Amino acid sequence: MTSSKNNANMTTPTPLKRVLGTTRITLYGVGTIVGAGIYVLLGEVVAASGTFSALSFLLAAVIVSFSAYSYAHLTRRFPVSAGEAVYVQEAFGLPTVSSAVGWVIVVAGIVSAATIANGFTGYFKLFAAWPSPLIIVLLVALLTSIAAWGVSVSVSVAAVSAILEFAGLILVIYAGGEKIPALLDNASNYLIPDTSIAWAGVGTGAFIAFYAFIGFEDMVNMAEEVKNPERTLPRSILIALAVSTILYLLVALTALAALPIDELAGSEAPLAMIVERNTNIPVWTIGSIGMIAVVNGALLQIIMASRMLYGMGKRGLAPALLSSVNKHTQTPLLATVLIGGLVLGFALALPLSTLAQLTSGLILLVFTLVNLALFVLNLRDGIPGLWPRLIPLMGTILCAGFIARHLLS
Asked: Model's pTM, two decimal places?
């Protein structure tokens, strides 16, 4: 009898640990979305859309919201890791395509983390002039260790970082927010483009701002570590996107009100500039928060990509060995170490701009397929009403259009 029990214990796989409630998974989502995006991209958006930058962020949020709707509904139906691969498999029944989608998500996570690790060196050198390769190696090793330690620890670290990121944006709004009412007195100059050239700039700015909204999709790959995921995840996805959108709009309006356009455009540290010019707060304060935001973004991408590999391994879409869970940490240790190694390789091999563009293209491709998957499932299952079909269809068209715009530009 004892022998049978031991054999059973040896063959029963260790499950992931369900420790994440609404608060922590929502903070995880906010931390992933906010991350490095708004801290480094605001200047680029202003360079593209000028005084209509806030409108670019709003347009990007509207476009992303269609995909958020699809993710929220699909994760309610299929609350599992490797979410995107499962959604596509359930909709189209094509294992090859499902596996390809999963691998695209993994590569996107790796490239995104490598982008962030690469960009981190600029922040770090404000404090110590170490060689970039050394900084990248030490950062990726540290983050991989945290991700492997345990989901409760790693998500707690991410949640604390998300709170600091949030505090940094509130600090920026505090620094220049009192000037927003004066800006809104001339709202037409900032919110109502009146020429085709101005609208084209808004569209270009929205494409750049899109990168700042990437991250909510990572939440679905934590499904097997979330309590009551059918209810918790859809609600947390929508809350995280709503909070991020409100913060982005306030920060964009604050930036436009607090600094001249020509100084904002192309600035590598626009938020630090706002704080420096409008308060007596030491500029290193927002610089340090920006550095934490960058680190947090890389950590969350490593966690997400390892969970995707774990979920794919369970379903035969990747080597089964990648689905093994360490009995002590209750994390997919092998998958996490593999992801960390690949992040390091990409970060050392490719420049920042190439990594960022590759990330956006891969995520848009996945969003297109996920929206299409929900449209097909709703149509096939006879879900009543116009909106359950129209919203994912519009999401498919918008994301495919963004890809086309990117390829043709």
From this structure: 0.78
Location of structure tokens 């609350």: 79
pLDDT tens digits, one per residue of 35-74: 666 776 788 888 889 999 999 999 999 989 999 999 999 9
Q: What is the CATH number of the domain that holds 312?
A: 1.20.1740.10
Domain enclosing residue 123, as ranges: 20-408
Tokens of 328: 């002590």
Q: What is the pLDDT of residues 297-312, one digit of tens each?
A: 788 788 878 887 887 8
Separation in Å, CA 408 to CA 56, 177, 195: 20, 38, 22
In a domain? residue 199: yes
Is 5 within a domain? no
CB atoms inside a 10 Å sphere around CB 6: 10
| 358 occurs within a structural domain | yes
Q: Are 309 and 276 in contact (CB under 8 A)?
A: no
Looking at the domain assignment, is residue 233 inside a domain? yes
Residue by residue, DSSP assigns 177-225 as GGGHHHHHTTTHHHH---SHHHHHHHHHHHHHHHHHHTTGGGGGGGGGG
- The number of distinct structural domains making up the chain is 1
